[in-house]
Each structure stands twice: as C-alpha cells, then as structure tokens.
TrEMBL record:
Keyword Ligase tagged: yes
Family: Belongs to the CarA family.
Gene3D superfamilies according to UniProt: 3.40.50.880, Carbamoyl-phosphate synthase small subunit, N-terminal domain, lambda repressor-like DNA-binding domains
GO biological process: 'de novo' pyrimidine nucleobase biosynthetic process; 'de novo' UMP biosynthetic process; glutamine metabolic process; L-arginine biosynthetic process
Enzyme Commission identifier(s): 6.3.5.5
Catalytic activity reported: hydrogencarbonate + L-glutamine + 2 ATP + H2O = carbamoyl phosphate + L-glutamate + 2 ADP + phosphate + 2 H(+); L-glutamine + H2O = L-glutamate + NH4(+)
Name assigned to this protein: Carbamoyl phosphate synthase small chain
Ranges where the record places region CPSase: 1-257
Keyword field contains Secreted: no
Lineage: Bacteria, Pseudomonadati, Pseudomonadota, Alphaproteobacteria, Acetobacterales
SUPFAM superfamilies for this protein: Carbamoyl phosphate synthetase, small subunit N-terminal domain (SSF52021), Class I glutamine amidotransferase-like (SSF52317)
Residues binding L-glutamine: 114, 306, 308, 336, 339, 377, 379-380
Length: 441
C-alpha cells in the first residue's frame, strides 16, 4: 500500500464507516491493518469515497531483484513475495492463491484435480522431505498452477521415493517458490480472502512485475468458472484396483455391485475406496447425460470431487443427476459432487472467503453425534438455508458452522463436502463408503 491503511481509514471516518461502506464487519476492517492490505474488491468504493487512485492502493513495485532471489509470487494488488525457484521454469497462469494446512501428503494434494486454477501455499514447513513416487499420485498430472513453500526442500528420506520434489515438479511442468514467509502469506489470505496471483520463475532471471500484477488483476477468478470438464476423463473406462496397504500393496477386491462414478475431477483413491467396498466401478466423463450413465445399468452412482464453481458445472451436471434420481438409482457425492447433488435437490451454493483446505478439519455427523477429523479441499459451500423440505442436513463444520453433508431418504441419495477417501488425511470417514454400499444392498 502506497497510502497507509491508517490514512485511508482516517479519510473514510474510521473503522465503522469503512465497514459500512464496504459491507464488512469492523473486525474485518481491523484485520486490514494486520494484513497490511485492503482486498481489491473494495478499492472502487473506497476510491469513490476518498478520491484516492489505483496507485494509492497498489504496492510499489521495484524491478530490482533481491540477492539470491530467482522467483517471485506477485499478487493482484502489486505485492511481491521473493524467493528461490524450483521445479519448472516459466510463469504460471493467473490463479487463485490458497493455503493448505495438511502435515502430510503433499504429493497427493498437488495431484488432486480439485486444485485446478489455484496456486497452493503449504503452511507446514517440511515439504519435500519424503520425495515423490508414482504410487502416491492421485492423477496423471498436476492441475494446480504453482507451489509456495517456506523452506528449501532437502534430499528425500524415504525408501519409496523415486525422485525429489523439484525434479518431479519440473517433469510435470509446474513452478515452485521457496523461502517465502508462508505465515505472513497465510494470515493475509485468512484475513483478506484468497487473492489472484502469478508465480514467476523465469529462466533468464528477468521480472516485469507490473505486467505480472496486471495479469493477476485481470483474471476473473474461479466464480462462474467451469473447470470440471477440463480435468475430467474424455471417455468411459473401468476401474478395478483397491486401496493400498504397507503389507500387501494395492488390493484386488471381488466386486458385488455395479457403480458408475461421474468424473468431475476424481482422485484415484476414491475409485480404489469404492472398489475395496465391493464395487465394480465404471468411470464416465463429467458431461455425461443421465442416459449415458443409466446405460451401464448401475446399482448406484457416485459423484466425484472437482474444481471450479459448482453453479457453472451445474448447467449440465444437474439435469443428469436429476435424471438418475428420477430413475430411482442411489447416489453418493463428495465435495463438488455434494454441491451438485444439493443443487439438483433445489439448494444453492456460495463462495467461501478462504475455503477449507487441509487434512485436519473437524466435522460433526449429526446422525450419530460423532466428530470426525476430515480431509477437505473446497472454496465453495452449500447454503443449507436454501435446501428444501425433505433434504436433511447430516454433517456440519466445527470450524465455521458451514454445511458438510446432506441426505434425502425419499430419493436414496446423500453427500458430504469433504474427502472420505483420505489420501492424504485421516481415515475417520471411510465408513461412508460402507454406508453407500449398504444402500445398494
């Protein structure tokens, strides 16, 4: 900020006046000070009220590269976080900058298709310490657009490792940056919401910071963006392999039920979990119609996780889901699948300020009273007030009270906002796959 936060608030008449003008709470205004920035979405209203210009909000950018810096994370407001690049050289596409609080499973997180359109900041400092291996990949490629970490990664210390993190990212074509104050960055995202950003790791070491900030500012963000069809498979295929164990590797279970999984960005361990629960799994593309799905004569249908705005994906997914429900086939959805099922039942979704991302999210199952620690990755949520009669709220977040699960017994469907397949994360929620199979039986 070229003009200080205190000066801007003085011109507006104080915290309460600023809160009224921008439609936020006085507490949110106070957080502007700790973050050292004001969210760009509030700039137009403040400029109109105070006569300030864009230059007064944008951080002054210098083309001088600090000693040792080879990469830069540039935010839409012009803020620059310098660091040391690794992985693939280049400049990421403009992305939403988010943070993940998981302590393990960085490779599974990076290959989760739900991170399409995002740059991931890990709050845990020891990223890269166990290297990478093909067995821990949740997709054939990385859909996230960049990686931000605090510490330089060390040599891998795990017998399963086949490549270090930097070499693996380079192979995948993804840039990373180390040496960033991820605590300050996380507080900024927490207090101000997820900003647009660009991660630059140029091979020639030259940075056009003004152009990079302009690219980030010009990007429209994830709202209204359908990314599911970009990460989905393009044709149907069968999946038979079960979950992995240290003693036996991947299982080869015998199937009892025929399940169709709609791929909005499905992780491999979801398919493995369905197979281990006794399902022969046929995976179909995101844009499959009800007729495409029912052609496989499924005993049940699974709606997978995925990226982007559920309201955008709903334009083609909801009619298909409603067609499956009309045929009386049981449905189980997670993450984006939960949001789409809720929409198909008459509910609405909204964008969260910072989202839920990590393997330590507490959720209460209202049907049993038990609390489970869950793995989550979502930036949108279901507005439970919009759910019609006959749709039961089954799970709730103990972080912020947002909806984490629904069920409609009349239609034999249920869904949760989180990831019961674990990978990474705890296995507290694995019972949901059995709950689904019990419906089929």
């Amino acid at each position: 900020m070229q003009t200080s936060i205190d000066e801007i608030l003085r011109r507006l008449g104080g915290n309460e006046a600023a809160a009224t003008l921008t439609g936020v709470s006085p507490e949110a205004v106070r957080k502007w000070r700790s973050a050292g920035a004001i969210p760009p979405r509030h700039w137009p209203a403040i400029m109109t009220a105070t006569g300030l210009t864009m230059e007064d909000f944008s951080a002054p950018s210098s083309s001088e590269v600090p000693p040792g810096a080879t990469a830069a994370l540039v935010l839409a407001d012009g803020s620059v976080f310098w660091g040391r690049g690794f992985g693939a050289h280049g400049i990421s596409q403009p992305s939403e900058l988010c943070f993940n609080t998981g302590l393990t499973g960085y490779q599974e997180t990076l290959t989760d298709p739900s991170y399409a359109g995002q740059i991931i900041t890990f709050t845990f400092p020891h990223i890269g310490n166990v290297g990478t291996n093909a067995e821990d990949e949740e997709a054939s490629r990385i859909f996230a657009r960049g990686l931000v970490v605090k510490e330089d990664f060390t040599a891998p210390s795990n017998y399963r490792s086949t490549a270090d993190l930097g070499a693996w990212l380079a192979k995948m074509g993804i840039p990373g940056i180390a040496g960033v104050d991820t605590r300050a960055l996380t507080l900024r995202i927490r207090d101000l919401g997820a900003p647009n950003a660009v991660l630059a790791f140029p091979e020639d070491g030259k940075f056009d910071l003004k152009a990079l900030a302009a690219q980030a500012a010009a990007w429209g963000g994830l709202e209204g963006l359908d990314l599911a069809k970009e990460v989905s498979c393009t044709q149907s295929y069968e999946w038979t392999g079960g979950t992995w164990s240290w003693e036996h590797g991947f299982a080869s279970p015998e199937p009892r039920f025929n399940v169709v999984a709609v791929d909005f960005g499905a992780k491999r361990n979801i398919l493995r979990s369905l197979a281990s629960a006794g399902c022969k799994v046929t995976v179909v593309p995101a844009q499959s119609t009800a007729e495409d799905i029912l052609r496989h004569k499924p005993d049940g249908v699974f709606l997978s996780n995925g990226p982007g705005d559920p309201a955008a994906t709903a334009t083609y997914a909801v009619p298909a889901i409603q067609g499956v429900m009309a045929a009386g086939v049981p449905i189980f959805g997670i993450c984006l699948g939960h949001q789409l099922l809720s929409t198909a039942l008459g509910g609405k979704t909204y964008k969260l300020e910072r989202g839920h991302r990590g393997a330590n999210q507490p959720v209460k199952d209202l049907t049993t009273g038990k609390v489970e620690i869950t793995s989550q990755n979502h930036g949108f949520a279901v507005d439970e007030k919009s759910l019609p009669a006959g749709v039961e709220v089954t799970h709730v977040s103990l972080f912020d009270g947002s909806n984490e699960g629904i069920a409609c017994k009349a239609k034999r469907v249920f869904s949760v906002q989180y990831h019961p397949e674990a990978s990474p994360g705890p296995s507290d929620s694995a019972y949901l796959f059995k709950r689904f199979v019990d419906m089929l039986g």
